[in-house]
Structures
1.
Amino acid sequence: RLQQHYINKPWWNKLIFFGREDGHLSKAQLDLLERKIIEKMKRAEIELDNNTQGNQSYIDKLSQFSALSLLSKVERVLIDIANIDLFASDDTEFDRFDPTPNNDTISILFGRQHYTGSSYRDVFTKLVSTLVLSSEISKLTDLINSTEPNTVQILGTLERVSGKGTKLTKAIDSSKYHVYVNFSKDALYKKIQILAHLTNNKVTFERW
DNA sequence: TTACTACTTCTGATCTCTAC
DNA sequence: GTAGAGATCAGAAGTAGTAA
């Protein structure tokens, strides 16, 4: 499939793939998963290059449960670990993945994307990382310093360490940037509002 | 394998400094 | 005096090493 897409679909540059470690994923299960993902994408009003509905292969109930369980795990890992919500506009689906939210977690809704973390700084870091790695970074030029970040220009290309050796910044994976994170809860709240303003996004502090 | 200790890192709060 | 920026600190949490 990748070879076909490499030749026929020149527009893509990233992919997400998953499978089972033991390799036990039947044709019927693959067809079911493809069909479910297509359905979810369409419900989320995401434009698809693929015009098919997916194959209607017969699948027994046990295999169906196994496949859907795998899909649920994949989506959860994407959201919790990689911070990627494939069906961001489908709030119902998002809620189903996390029916018992942990009161210890912090979460915000930024635009159509949920960000959760174990701390205020964690959520802030995830949000900034996502923006930096997206086209939204072009809207954040006022926040970028060519050297070390500071409390105003929170993004920079160098790590910042205090005189006593305290790290005041965090490196953003897969980018050249470091983000200043040594803020109080209130300061983080305000910085997120600034990010929302600059990127024309609405932000809701769900568990803050 | 478990328990313990020491060390490092992370987090949230607070203090100091500066500009207005 | 006040607000915001910059810096520091204490406690919590996590990790690594070691002995039993």
Note: The mean pLDDT of chain A is 70.
2.
Amino acid sequence: MSNLIDRLRNKGVVLTPQRLAVVEFLKKSTTHPTVNEIYKVLRKKYPMMSQATVYSTLELLKRIGEIQELSIRKDKACFDPNPKLHHHLLCRKCEKILDIEVNCPIIKKGKVKRCEVEEVQAYLYGICPACLKKEHGKKE
Amino acid sequence: MSNLIDRLRNKGVVLTPQRLAVVEFLKKSTTHPTVNEIYKVLRKKYPMMSQATVYSTLELLKRIGEIQELSIRKDKACFDPNPKLHHHLLCRKCEKILDIEVNCPIIKKGKVKRCEVEEVQAYLYGICPACLKKEHGKKE
DNA sequence: CTGATTGCAAAAGGTTTGCATGAAT
DNA sequence: ATTCATGCAAACCTTTTGCAATCAG
């Protein structure tokens, strides 16, 4: 965690308590939270925190390549503390977002079909292993 | 086009003039239009057409598998008359959306990493061939 | 006829923006 | 002093919803 803070400092980021709170919460999280989820949790500890600050901090972290934003949900953005290229599945049963670590030889950065690809997001929709297992007992 | 209409009838779709207008416009289009783009064009010919009807018709066409919805733009939905699995690139220069017809062995429907994948959307962000060509002359 | 569809307008929800306050250097 | 971040609230846009009027079969 402390080398994350060093990294931010080196990138010239002014580290306010609010920003630290967002960074720390997000880097610990494994659930790809939305802005509002982050805001609601942090507000308990930092009652003066505003949603606009959460937005601007996430924008900043995205810009410097510390996190990535997902549009896998149609209605709102989710955030992933891991900025490296990987894919995601949204489970239609439990609504959770899972990281999908596969090395796709085609859907990747670089030249694809004469295009210069700089960023990739692959969104899979279906059922996660946990919900598949639950279904095995039932009919359906 | 007439076998499209037959197909809709066979699926039990009530064919109103508004729905026909949306279907015909979208099936001819190659630009992945947004709801508002569709609405603005159709309103010229059908002044009584409402945006709510465009929304509901697109929802209907999606449900019966005639079109697909893209979330490649962060702010609004785009629609693709081709419901088959294929991928897309959003060019950051011209803002156009291109179809990317590649056969990815990994990002596909079926079993992926112990998940049951029912739908796939791969969104590539970068520069399209036309804009790349334009850049060649310039320094950049 | 009768249920489905339409159009209108309002509501909802997420995101962005403007500006005054406040903190840091 | 000056710059930059914050918080608040309003504004903005897209999408959804409710309902009365209308239409398709």
Note: The longest strand of chain A covers residues 115-127.
3.
Amino acid sequence: MCVPERNVCHGRHSRIGPRDGPGPCAGIPAEQMAFVRQVLDRVGDKWSLLVIAVLEGGPLRYTDLQRQAPGISQRMLTLTLRRLRQDGLITRTAYAEVPPRVEYALTPLGRGLHEIAASLVRWAFDHHEEIREHRAHATAQ
Amino acid sequence: MCVPERNVCHGRHSRIGPRDGPGPCAGIPAEQMAFVRQVLDRVGDKWSLLVIAVLEGGPLRYTDLQRQAPGISQRMLTLTLRRLRQDGLITRTAYAEVPPRVEYALTPLGRGLHEIAASLVRWAFDHHEEIREHRAHATAQ
DNA sequence: CTGTATCCACCAGGATACTG
DNA sequence: CAGTATCCTGGTGGATACAG
């Protein structure tokens, strides 16, 4: 939202930044927009919230995560875990065993994000009928 | 999050659904996941939240929106407005005048989403330092 | 078991030109 | 003024094969 300083977007294309100046945007300092974008990009991507939601139940191993997040590919699981770890939302603990065992767990920060996400989920649930009605009533396309 | 019933994703590819069954996912009934996905897709896309944020200040005309959301293309403004309208988050009022005048305004539903988004923004702001630190400390890639 | 590497399909979204 | 139509880019993310 608000002036993607440099188009972070979801990472989709984004070659040039906006040609205009900052642009205040409804009371939100453009300064913060980069961070907000980043958080949104994390929340908005396909698997992060799912992984966080799944980890809410306690630490899990790679394979268990794969099982609990049906449909995720190995590639995306790895990428998602890496990004979440880089953001400090989850921790990775590797045990030097044979066979190798790695456990992922939520950090307090990650739990915080999950709470916000949960409120979003709650809102979505509270209003989904309303939204569906509108969508259904929207005639074409 | 949680079992994209049919891969809605951000609309990106998504040809097949997950081959597995429902998959409960941390207490969130798979039933609701479709709606949550939809809301997330709206929140997560590039311009919706910005438009909503801008409209928080009161009804605006097409051109004004374009000005207040620096960097948005006509195409994306139109698409975003259409989607928001279809979801019942904003209203469109056309006045039969010359030259034509069209005003977009938030609905109560839209304001509700904006509040949730605002809390997300607040969280992002409260923790951006923490996140940045983690990102900086993340050695490679 | 826990990943990494490669290939590629697909679609969001920018640029541009045109219309009522 | 308020859009629509068309073309194009490039990043996301699935599939698959391979590695420590």
Note: The beta strands of chain A are 60-61, 90-95, 101-106.
